[in-house]
Design a protein that fits this description.
Belongs to the OST1 family. This protein is an alpha+beta fold. It has 9 helices and 30 strands. The strands form 7 sheets. The chain has a 7-stranded mixed β-sheet. The longest helix has 40 residues. The chain is elongated and about 130 Å long.
Length: 584
């Protein structure tokens, strides 16, 4: 079953009729999108004024139709187009309303644009890495209309590459990258002549099967945009293994039927741009700043051949003053429904979510074309109480011509902007106040003797710890004096170090005895353990004189055996003291 190309039929108004005097039709088949542009000249041959014409599409064209638009003459505005319920001889009818009523014998020129997706079929369906991609287009050499056509011509653009076969409908002229059918004269209504064109088309047939676009609006000066995109190459599938070496040595370069890299066009004010996939950030991307846009050069981790797929996330921030307008409490957000993904992209399913600030109301939405508005969602963020309203839009089968702006109207009171800062301030104030009250006040109703005893013991153990630390420092100072003696050989300094050790030790032991005795009234067990603190340095003091004598006799500046033994005794006493204190 093959599809006829665009069939335009000149419509009728009540008691009026049309005649097509000239048709100049162009069919662009150089990419995955079939782009049809028809320049029509029509004359009202009826008995009264007419204000509309009709466009007819075959059933298959209607199924693959993504975009349709019409312009009258040199006017830049788009004409209103509506799909009619009734069919005409098996064709789907689209009614185009003209800018003005056309009088009898009056002439009007109309340009109709169509974009058809997934109409071209690869043949063969599977190719190797080194082969080129060929596709087949089925269509009609004539411009079929519901009225006679005086003169018509169709130009088919194929792009560069080989042409395997072209159906001839005389007069037909095949020149390089184009095929011209016609001109044909005085064709009757609904004239059809089937054609088939089998040609080379190495454009990657990459389709964005899923695009989930999220726009988060903040009244504090920023709008965050993020898109999750899934890409699938729906051209001729890759047959056999993939070779990275063959790919790098392929002389075809960009003419390979694979997506090697592409350019995404973002707004000129985009900043904080990021691009990542499931693995993480992809460093092969680059950003180029232009006067009216920001171009992101994206290179996936691997080339996308037929049947292959990938997904990624791209996001950025833009200043809100460029897209958010207000007058008092009335706000209007004007942004694009869809960002430019890459040239000639086809989007199978688009979901656009607009996250509005909390407490908005009276939401109204205007879209540039028909979209399905899903039920609103609610999303919670930091310091939210009732949640933020999320407006959800969906549309299937989009092309670059759908990159247009929507307008979202809502009301928001300015006083609500300081609500969350006040909530944060109140929260932290309450938290710190509670901590202060809990720390400063004793909430026990009845005194706890056991708890009070534990607190007294902890205080006395803390005193013991300080005294033991002081005694350990006394031994460390003596070892420093010995070290200095080995360098200076000053006997007086060494004897002064010894004298200071004995004096400080006696003083600390006296205070330790008093502190240990104070433990007895609270805990006999702790008292008995603590007495051991006075015995740990006995071996140190017993060997002190012998150690000093050996130091004086030794001429070594480095540590001797006696130094090592004495130092070990000091360290052992310190370790045992700390372990005992920890057990109290």
């Amino acid at each position: 079953m093959w599809a006829l190309p665009l069939v335009l039929c000149v419509g009728v108004a009540v008691a009026s009729d049309w005649k097509v005097t000239k048709v100049d039709r162009t069919i662009d088949l150089s990419s995955q999108i079939v782009k049809i542009s028809s320049q029509l000249t029509l004359v009202n041959v009826g008995t009264s004024e007419a204000n509309s014409v009709e466009v007819l599409l075959t059933k298959e064209e209607n199924e693959h139709l993504s975009y349709i638009s019409a312009q009258e003459g040199n006017s830049k505005g788009k004409l209103k187009i509506s799909k009619q319920a009734l069919e005409k001889q098996g064709f789907k009818v689209y009614k185009i309303e003209l800018l003005n009523r056309v009088p009898k014998d009056g002439e009007v020129k109309v340009k109709v644009e169509l974009r058809l997706t997934e109409l071209l079929r690869p043949l063969p369906e599977k190719i190797t890495q080194k082969e080129n991609q060929f596709v087949v287009y089925h269509g009609n050499a004539h411009y079929a209309a519901s009225y006679p056509v005086v003169e018509e011509k169709t130009t088919v653009k194929l792009g560069s590459g080989k042409t395997m076969s072209v159906t001839q409908v005389l007069p037909t002229n095949h020149e390089n990258e184009r095929v011209v059918y016609g001109p044909y004269k005085d064709q009757p209504a609904f004239s059809t002549k089937s054609i088939k064109i089998h040609y080379e088309n190495n454009a990657p047939f990459v389709v964005a099967t899923v695009v989930e676009r999220t726009i988060e609006v903040s009244h504090w000066g920023n709008i965050a945009v993020e898109e999750y995109i899934e890409l699938v190459h729906k051209g001729a599938e890759l047959k056999g293994p993939f070779s990275r070496i063959d790919h790098q040595m392929d002389r075809r370069g960009r003419r390979q039927p694979a997506l090697l890299h592409f350019t995404t066009v973002l707004p000129a004010s985009a900043k904080d741009i990021y691009y990542r996939d499931e693995i993480g950030n992809i460093s092969t991307s680059s950003v180029r700043l232009r006067a009216d846009s920001v171009d992101v050069e994206i290179k996936p981790r691997f080339p996308l051949f037929g049947g292959w797929r990938t997904s990624y996330v791209i996001g950025y921030n833009v200043p809100s003053f460029e897209y958010l307008y207000n007058k008092g409490n009335d706000y209007a957000l004007k942004m694009r429904v869809l960002d430019h993904v890459f040239d000639n992209v086809v989007v199978e399913k688009l979901t656009t979510k607009i996250i509005l600030p909390e407490m908005v109301r009276k939401i109204r939405l205007t879209t540039p074309y028909t979209m399905d508005r899903r039920p609103d969602e609610v999303r919670f963020s930091y310091l939210d109480t009732s949640g933020r309203t999320v407006v959800v839009l969906q549309k299937d089968n989009l092309v670059p011509e759908h990159i247009q702006s929507f307008t979202l109207f809502y009301e928001f009171e300015y006083s609500q902007m300081i609500r969350e800062p006040l909530l944060a301030t109140a929260f932290f104030f309450a938290l710190f106040t509670a901590v202060i009250i809990y720390v400063r006040f004793d909430f026990t109703i009845v005194a706890d003797p056991a708890r009070e005893a534990r607190e007294r013991i902890q205080g006395k153990v803390s005193t013991l710890t300080q005294l033991v630390d002081k005694k350990n420092r006394t031994f460390s100072q003596f070892l420093n004096a010995v070290s200095q003696y080995k360098t200076s050989r000053d006997v007086t300094a060494l004897q002064d170090g010894k004298k200071k050790l004995e004096t400080d030790r006696t003083e600390v032991n006296g205070k330790l005895t008093t502190a240990i005795a104070a433990l007895k009234e609270d805990c006999q067990e702790s008292f008995e353990k603590a007495q051991e603190l006075l015995k740990y340095e006995k071996s140190i003091m017993d060997s002190l004189d012998g150690y000093i004598t050996s130091v004086q006799k030794s001429q070594q500046k480095s540590a001797s055996t006696e130094d090592t033994q004495f130092t070990q005794k000091v360290a052992e006493a310190r370790t045992r003291s700390e372990a005992l204190l920890a057990s109290l």
